[in-house]
Design brief:
It is a single chain. The strands form three sheets. Strands 3-2-1-5-8 form a five-stranded mixed sheet, covered by helices on one side. A five-stranded mixed sheet has the order 4-10-9-6-7. Strands 11-12 form a two-stranded antiparallel sheet. The protein has seven helices and twelve strands. A hairpin with a 2-residue loop joins strand 1 and strand 2. Helix 1 packs antiparallel against helix 2 and helix 4 packs across helix 7. The chain starts with 13 loop residues before the first helix and ends in a 10-residue tail after the last helix. By secondary structure, it is α+β, with helices and mostly antiparallel strands. The protein is about 35% helix and about 20% strand.
Length: about 325
């Protein structure tokens, strides 16, 4: 597709699948439109006023055959296209289990990027080629949308929630990143770059960033400075949930329901701890709304995620 400058490059594993579906729909829609217009012209000429064309009623058998035929064909084509588009979309929603994790915080009017080792970027995202990249994204203010046309990915980012997207780049180079959701007066300037490098070059770039500890390490320091360890240490004076091995489990809530402990659940507990707390615990945890920003919540989440079942000593 690079021969057509008006068409985005195919630079990810999603792009050929998306383009194949797109061009199939264009050809199918165009063919149907041409057929309809051709029939209109043919019938307008053949059955014009004064022509000798027969105008008797069609036999009922022919009418039924035509109706059953075109209805069945339309239903089959619809189901085929629905399955094709649905499978493509589901594939984009489910990142591989071992995908590289990169955090994205959108705010008016910039992209804040943070890698798992703590390296930070503004309006730039470095990633290696041929490696699945999982994007954990949230918004700090209004609705934004993370879009890289050359990758054929677009994901709305909502304030107060975590959303995921992923890609696997198939070409090196610099690709434009846009916000495609109107987000304020400077929306048109909310652009960035996704820089895809060879795996060796990316490893060198990442090592050269010299971050102050990885993301989980930053979360641990913040966990201690906020006083969280005083309550969540096993055997402590306050009865609070043990965080070791908690991430990814389902926990009972005070209303009898169950919740999966994921990024969104942890964010909700940090900002709104008194809203439907875990069963068996008093709602005494204070809210940290206004005290921690989205980047710090990401660090705290990374630290809690790193606490496996045998990590109880790390809380002390």
């Amino acid at each position: 597709m690079s021969a057509f400058p008006i068409f985005p490059r195919e630079a990810s594993s999603f792009a050929p699948k998306t383009d194949a579906l797109y061009f199939t729909l264009v050809v199918l829609s165009g063919s149907i439109a041409l057929l309809v217009f051709a029939l209109i012209i043919v019938f307008a000429v053949r059955y014009r006023r004064g022509s000798s064309a027969p105008r008797g009623a069609l036999p009922s058998l022919i009418k039924n055959e035509f109706e059953i035929g075109w209805t069945s064909a339309t239903l089959f084509v619809f189901l085929m296209l629905f399955w094709w588009a649905g499978s493509n979309q589901i594939g984009q929603l489910l990142p591989p289990a071992r995908a590289m994790e990169i955090h994205v915080v959108a705010k008016q009017w910039m992209w804040k990027i943070q890698h798992a080792n703590g390296a930070r970027e503004i309006n730039m995202l470095h990633a290696p080629i041929d490696e699945p990249i999982r994007l954990d994204m949230t918004s700090q203010d209004v609705i934004h949308s993370f879009s890289v046309p050359d990758f054929r990915i677009k994901q709305d980012i909502l304030p107060g929630r975590y959303v995921e997207s992923w890609f696997r780049a198939t070409k090196t180079g610099t690709f434009r990143l846009y916000c495609t959701q109107f987000c304020g007066t400077a929306h048109s300037g909310m652009v960035g770059s996704v820089i895809i490098m060879s795996k060796a070059d990316f490893a060198s770039w990442l090592a050269a960033q010299r971050p102050a500890g990885d993301l989980a390490g930053q979360g641990r320091a913040l966990f201690t400075s906020l006083g969280c360890a005083g309550c969540h240490t096993p055997g402590g004076p306050i009865h609070a949930p043990d965080l070791a091995g908690l991430y990814g489990r389902k926990v009972p809530l005070s209303d009898g329901a169950f919740a999966l402990v994921d990024d969104g659940y942890i964010r909700d507990r940090i900002l709104n701890p008194r809203s439907n707390p875990p069963a068996g615990y008093d709602p005494i945890m204070p809210s940290f709304k206004g005290e921690v920003d989205d980047g710090e919540i990401l660090a705290l989440t990374a630290y809690i995620r790193s606490l496996g079942p045998n990590s109880r000593g790390a809380l002390q």
